[in-house]
Specification:
Layout: H1 20-28, H2 34-48, H3 65-76, H4 82-98, H5 103-113, H6 122-142, H7 144-147, H8 150-164, H9 168-184, H10 187-202, H11 213-225, H12 242-250, H13 261-271, H14 276-285, H15 292-308, H16 321-334, H17 340-360, H18 367-378, H19 386-390, H20 395-400, H21 404-418, E1 422-423, E2 430-431, H22 445-459, H23 468-482, H24 485-488, H25 501-514, H26 522-541, H27 553-578, H28 587-600, H29 607-632, H30 640-652, H31 662-674, H32 679-692, H33 698-707, H34 715-720, H35 722-731, H36 734-756, H37 760-772, H38 790-817, H39 822-842, H40 848-867, H41 872-883, H42 899-910, H43 917-922, H44 924-947, H45 954-977, H46 985-992, H47 998-1010, H48 1017-1031, H49 1034-1037, H50 1045-1066, H51 1069-1072, H52 1077-1099, H53 1105-1115, H54 1120-1132, H55 1139-1152, H56 1156-1197, H57 1203-1242, H58 1261-1269, H59 1285-1293
Antiparallel strand pairs: 1-2
Family: Belongs to the MYBBP1A family.
GO molecular function: RNA binding; sequence-specific DNA binding; transcription corepressor activity
Pfam families: DNA_pol_phi
């Protein structure tokens, strides 16, 4: 084994002293799994620990175990597989670290084991050189190099450098070991031994352009620790050498060099100097010609430079035009998969920008630096649509990190772009954007639009929440350029600031988007809108403004709205002056917010919607004022004029006979606005609706629920638009009405056509008849194919194939129709917004009666959504809304609540009705949430009744709980007795986990169902789980006032009377088949819960003696001694129907009852049986061997005529082999159990002891050791040792 590679070994080494476990560990060092390799190394070190290394030659005969292991490790690092080299190298480093072995002995082993032979191949030679480098590296890592003599050190270093140069990919490994050696040695050793070797190998007189990446990496590592030894003129940081080094670093032979460590090392060194800008400029010079490898290397170095820059304010200098240009180009090439080079570059770019943003978050970075980075990305050479073009989220994260100073600077930049100009810093003249051809051209519309959108986003930045004046100025700017662009902009298209129709529309949208941010709170937003409305009113009254924007009826509506706003503003000021503390948002501020937002909506393209909404709001506000003045006694009776005016308004609304509450009108208006696709309106409604919730009436809530009614369909949206359509018909011109009539006629005609459209079967019948032609029969006749000739048959085949192709196309068209239409999608979104209002109401301490009204409509809507796959967004919102109900702990009022309401609601919730089984089961969690809410509501009513002094009847107080308990009892009986019951188990489990008196009434039936064999086994398991949930109810047992002691005693008596017979029946093998193992596990969990509850009850016993007696009786109800005895008998028995899981739970219960000795005795008896079985198997094995020998002798005497007998004998032997193999497996299992029991007996009394270092070893090391002990050491057979067939025949004949 010690000869050179490629030559056959002529001698063998005796391995009788090497244990089989050591050989197994050596084999496992080459496993692919890292965990297995580490385990093998630990086992190997454990085996040879304490043994000495005594090197011997092969001629000396028997070797020491350490000698053999060391030889195998040295030979193993030269393996061809990477995993094997890794495992052997790790074990070698550990062995050399903890064993006293000289470096000379290792050198001798290298010359002996890792030497090229005469017939070695190139790949084997490369493996040998890699093995030599790894062995020398292990010497360095283990510290043997420093302890070696000078001659050995020189030899090791020279051999390491020599082996490293044999292959290019080995050089980096060798130099890495040398750099690590340089870090550990002192200056004297470095100058005498290491530095001369490096000088001879690398040559210091070479130019940097002639050096390789590995040599640069080595010299950087040397200078980092001994800078005075290397001259400054030859340093890699010398400005004269930087261009050459940049050229070497960028021009790599292939892409595998991208991960070379030289880039990280050099960038870390150069970033700390003043020459970092020079280095980056030299790198960019190398990128003049686009090449993938160069770009990847440049991006890699840029990432390192940004991370190592001491001054992060220099980051903008590295975001150069060249970097931005190939960033944009790499993204454009991503659209074409064939351009793989650009895709690789873009992947690298995606890693760099997060690094840049992370470094910009440093505290030392100035706001000016961040703004400068944004300018480079958004302006030339970048683009204002940089994020859109690249898909990188860069601009917004940097903007969010700005402080108010930086945001204000950035807003000036955006405003200059919107206005079509940019002021250069330090100059008064205006400069325009310059492109590559340096021709001045104006900003494009899309860039100005995007700048306006970014400016609108800046207004909602969290850091600008208190900058009200600044926000007002930005909103005014967008107002001027979006709405009054003719006055503040330029009307001439040749000028820079010209605003066309398309641009004006987009800027107007940005203005309304800027009103959507409320980061400063509702009152601050109201102040901003109030100042904005006053500013707009001044512009409308200013004669110098030619374009008034609002004209005619719109201007009148504006004037009316401004008058109401002034009244509301005055009232808000009065209320704020009267209140000492900061008041809540009242009705005045509520209406003021609505009037301000809707009055500004008059400037939108859909001004009619705003005008109608303002008219309805005015009526509502007048009603509120009348209501308020009536309470104050200031209004006795309205005048005739006001009566007539109010009556006219009511008639216009179509409600002459019914006087609606103003809240209902406002809610209906909100729903109408939510049906519009405007985010600003939705945001406004969600912000003010929470202040309307305390005044919400049942009719108002039902109008919201009507939107969710699945039977409404499209009519929900159509009803919201009826008023506006009627007004349009009244105010429209004759031409318009004629056009509408024509459209309606066309719609009716198309509808008639759709009704007359034939079905799929009719189309198919017509196509078949057309294909058959004149020979087409009637529906009752058939075609005789024998009457057709060959040509007619071919024509018929072609015609029929066309007909059936038509059928296929018709089916595909039907599938396409199943997709959701635009109107259906709009309806889904509208309903989702309505659910948002309901969630806001639930979170605002609602009324209990109104919450009860919510449940059934929400469940109906959920059922509809489950059936339709397109309603998934609405389904998720409904589930979230229903999930909030059981968490309600406070209600604003319980007015109108009666016992029958909750009971009827509970019956309606748990009733399956017309729902299908899959839908009902899918709604299980929501049904559980509703039932839990009903129980909590009943408890809230009960406690409120007990606290009310006017309510003195105890029967009335507990009526709700008793009725709900009866419903749960009936449902529980149905759940356990009927097979078609679909009620969710969580409904009962959550009810039993609540601290309400009804729990005690449900426990007794559960005991009966748990031990009733007529109940299905899995239901009995659920009954055990329900009972365990009761006794584990911490809220129920944490307070003695919640415990119903008589009921608890009764339940425990029933349990005691049922458990002991049940356990006794388990001892009989006949009854065990009717009991599942999960029943045993459930019963053990129940007993554990009961025992735990007794401990908790004892902890909370009060000082009262009468209570202590009752609690003592509770704790002694169950006979734990009898239960323990039964469990002990069961544990000793076979427990065939229980299974390992049930047996484990029984063992835990025995331990809880203090009967752990039963388990030890059972283990001891089992071990005795195991020993007897092993003895019996040994005797049977000996008898079988004798029988086989006799049988083989008799077979040799028989002739070839007994072939059938031989076949039978062969079958018998195969059966014996199979039995023998299975017996070995069982024997190994029995041995393991015997060992575990032996270790358990030995470890008695040592549970609290701890041993240092034991925790670091793998848990299954002993099992692996035991497996290794079973392996016999068998030396490999040589070819000469194998007996030839002729010799066998001669021996048999003799």
């Amino acid at each position: 084994m010690g000869e050179a590679r490629g030559e056959v070994a002529s001698k063998t080494t005796k391995l009788t002293t090497v244990q089989s476990s050591t050989l197994e560990a050596l084999r496992n060092l080459g496993k692919p799994s890292e965990v297995e390799r580490v385990e093998a190394a630990l086992n190997l070190l454990k085996r040879i620990s304490g043994k000495q290394f005594t090197p011997k030659d092969d001629s000396e005969g028997e070797k020491n175990e350490v000698d053999y292991v060391l030889e195998r490790l040295v030979r193993g690092v030269g393996a061809s597989r990477v995993t094997a080299r890794t495992g052997f190298y790790s074990a070698l480093v550990a062995l050399l670290t903890y064993h006293k072995i000289s470096a000379r002995n290792i050198l001798n082993l290298v010359k002996k084991e890792l030497v090229k032979g005469k017939t070695v191949s190139k790949s084997e030679a490369a493996d040998i050189h890699m093995g030599q480098v790894l062995v020398y590296g292990a010497i360095i890592r283990s510290g043997l190099f420093v302890e070696a003599v000078k001659d050995d050190q020189t030899e090791i270093l020279n051999d390491l450098l020599s082996a490293g140069k044999k292959r290019t990919y080995i050089t980096l490994v060798a130099y890495s070991f040398i750099i690590q050696l340089v870090k550990e040695v002192n200056r004297k050793l470095f100058q005498k031994v290491i530095w001369p070797g490096i000088q001879e190998s690398c040559g210091l007189n070479k130019d940097w352009k002639d050096r390789s990446l590995d040599e640069i990496y080595l010299l950087i590592g040397v200078r980092a620790h001994f800078p005075s030894i290397v001259a400054d003129s030859a340093s890699h940081l010398n400005p004269d050498n930087i261009p050459q080094i940049a050229s070497v670093l960028v021009n790599i032979p292939n892409v595998s060099y991208v991960g070379h460590p030289v880039y990280n090392s050099y960038c870390q060194e150069i970033a700390a100097t003043e020459h970092v800008s020079l280095f980056w400029s030299e790198v960019e010079k190398q990128l003049s010609k686009p090449y993938r490898n160069r770009q990847l290397i440049a991006l890699q170095m840029l990432e390192h430079l940004v991370n190592y820059l001491p001054d992060k304010n220099m980051i903008p200098s590295f975001i150069t035009p060249l970097f931005i240009s190939f960033t944009l180009k790499s993204k454009s090439s991503k659209r074409h998969p064939q351009e793989k080079d650009g895709l690789d570059v873009f992947v690298k770019v995606k890693h760099i920008f997060p690094t840049i943003m992370k470094n910009l978050e440093s505290e030392e970075v100035k706001e000016k630096t961040k703004v400068e980075v944004l300018k480079k990305l958004l302006f030339h050479p970048g683009s204002f649509t940089f994020e859109k073009n690249t898909g990188l989220k860069v601009v917004q994260p940097i903007t969010t990190s700005l402080i108010p100073t930086g945001v204000k600077k950035l807003s000036k930049v955006y405003r200059e772009v919107v206005s079509g100009k940019m002021e250069s810093e330090g100059e008064n003249e205006v400069r325009k954007r310059k492109m590559k051809d340096f021709k001045a051209i104006p900003w494009k519309n899309k860039e100005r639009i995007y700048a306006a959108q970014l400016l609108a986003r800046l207004i909602g930045t969290p850091c600008m929440a208190n900058e009200n004046e600044w926000k007002l100025n930005q909103v005014k700017f967008l107002l001027h350029w979006g709405i009054y662009s003719k006055h503040f902009g330029h009307s001439n298209s040749d000028e820079t600031g010209f605003v066309g129709v398309e641009l004006a529309h987009s800027l107007r949208e940005s203005f309304f988007r800027s009103l959507d941010h409320k980061s400063g709170g509702l009152r601050a937003h109201i102040d901003l809108l109030l100042n904005l409305v006053h500013h707009v009113d001044e512009l409308l009254k200013d004669d110098s403004v030619e374009d008034k924007v609002l004209k005619g009826m719109a201007l009148e509506d504006w004037g009316k709205a401004v008058k109401v706003i002034e009244r509301l503003e005055k009232r808000v000021k009065e209320e704020s002056e009267e209140s000492i503390s900061k008041p809540k948002i009242g009705e005045a501020e509520f209406f003021l917010m609505l009037f301000l937002q809707l009055s500004l909506q008059l400037f939108d393209w859909d001004a009619g919607l705003a005008a109608d909404s303002l008219a309805e709001l005015s009526v509502c506000y007048e009603k509120l004022e009348q209501e308020r003045m009536g309470k104050m006694g200031e209004i006795k009776s309205p005048s005739k004029k006001n009566k007539k005016k109010a009556k006219e308004e009511v008639i216009e609304n179509g409600e002459e006979e019914q006087d609606l509450d103003w809240v209902e009108v406002v809610v209906d208006l909100f729903l109408h606005l939510l049906s519009q696709n405007r985010h600003l309106l939705r945001s406004m409604i969600c912000s003010v609706f929470v202040h309307l919730c305390p005044r919400l009436t049942p009719n108002a809530l039902h109008s919201i629920l009507q939107v969710l009614d699945p039977r409404g369909g499209k009519s929900v949206l159509e009803d919201k638009d009826d008023e506006s359509e009627d007004e349009d018909e009244e105010n429209g011109s004759g031409e318009g009405s004629e056009e509408e009539k024509e459209e309606s006629e066309e719609d009716s005609e198309s509808g008639a056509d759709e009704e007359e459209e034939p079905t799929v079967n009719e189309n198919l019948r017509r196509a078949v008849q057309k294909a058959l032609g004149s020979s087409a029969p009637s529906d009752t006749e058939s075609v005789d194919l024998d009457d057709m000739n060959e040509e007619e048959g071919k024509q018929l085949d072609a015609a029929l194939s066309q007909a059936f192709r038509l059928l296929k196309d018709t089916k595909n068209a039907g599938k396409a129709k199943k997709q959701q239409t635009k109107d259906e999608r709009s309806l889904t979104h509208f309903r989702t917004r309505a659910v948002d209002l309901l969630e806001i109401y639930i979170d605002s301490s609602p009324s209990m009666a109104l919450c009860c009204d919510l449940i059934l409509p929400l469940l109906d809507a959920l059922e509809f959504c489950i059936k339709d796959v397109h309603q998934k967004p609405l389904e998720n919102r409904l589930r979230a809304c229903l999930k909030k109900l059981p968490n309600l702990k406070k209600f604003s009022s319980t007015e109108g609540m009666e016992d029958d309401i909750l009971c009827d609601l509970l019956n309606a919730v748990i009733k399956k009705g017309s729902r299908t089984a899959p839908v009902f089961m899918d709604m299980g969690n929501e049904i559980t949430s509703c039932c839990t809410f009903i129980i909590r509501a009943s408890e809230y009513l009960r406690k409120e009744g007990e606290g009310n002094e006017l309510v003195k009847s105890k029967k009335k107080k507990s009526a709700v709980t008793a009725k709900i308990t009866d419903i749960y009892k009936k449902s529980l009986e149905t759940f356990f007795t009927r097979r078609d019951c679909l009620l969710p188990p969580t409904m009962f489990r959550q009810a039993l986990q609540l601290p309400w008196p009804g729990c005690w009434s449900l426990v007794s039936p559960l005991v009966q169902f748990a031990f009733d064999l007529a109940v299905r086994p899995f239901r009995r398991t659920q009954a055990f789980q329900f009972l365990a949930a009761v006794f584990l109810n911490q809220q129920l047992f944490s307070n003695l006032g919640n415990i119903n002691v008589p009921a608890l005693i009764k339940v425990k008596e029933e349990l005691n009377s049922k458990i002991i017979p049940f356990l006794t029946s388990l001892e009989e093998p006949g009854d065990a088949s009717n009991i599942r193992k999960k029943n045993i596990v459930g019963l053990m969990n129940l007993l554990h819960a009961v025992r735990t509850s007794e401990v908790q009850i004892k902890k909370i016993i009060g000082d009262g003696v009468h209570m202590a007696d009752e609690i003592e009786r509770v704790c002694k109800t169950i006979d734990w001694d009898a239960i323990g005895a039964s469990l002990a008998c069961i544990y000793r028995g076979a427990m065939r129907g229980v299974g390992p899981e049930g047996k484990k739970s029984v063992g835990k219960m025995l331990k809880l009852l203090g009967l752990g000795s039963v388990r030890a005795q059972h283990q001891k008896a089992k071990l005795q049986k195991v020993a007897a079985k092993l003895e019996l198997e040994k005797k049977e094995k000996e008898d079988k061997n004798v029988t086989e020998e006799l049988g083989s002798e008799s077979d040799e005497e028989e002739d070839g005529t007994n072939a059938p007998k031989k076949d039978k004998e062969q079958e018998r032997r195969e059966k014996k082999k199979r039995r023998k193999k299975s017996s070995k497996i069982e024997t190994r299992k029995l041995k393991k159990e015997t060992k575990n029991f032996r270790m358990m007996e030995f470890s008695k009394g040592l549970e609290e002891s701890a041993f240092v270092g034991i925790g670091e070893l793998p848990e299954d090391m002993e099992d692996a050791e035991e497996r290794n002990m079973d392996i016999e050491i068998k030396p490999k057979k040589r070819k000469s040792d194998v007996m030839p067939k002729t010799a066998k025949k001669m021996k048999r004949d003799s």
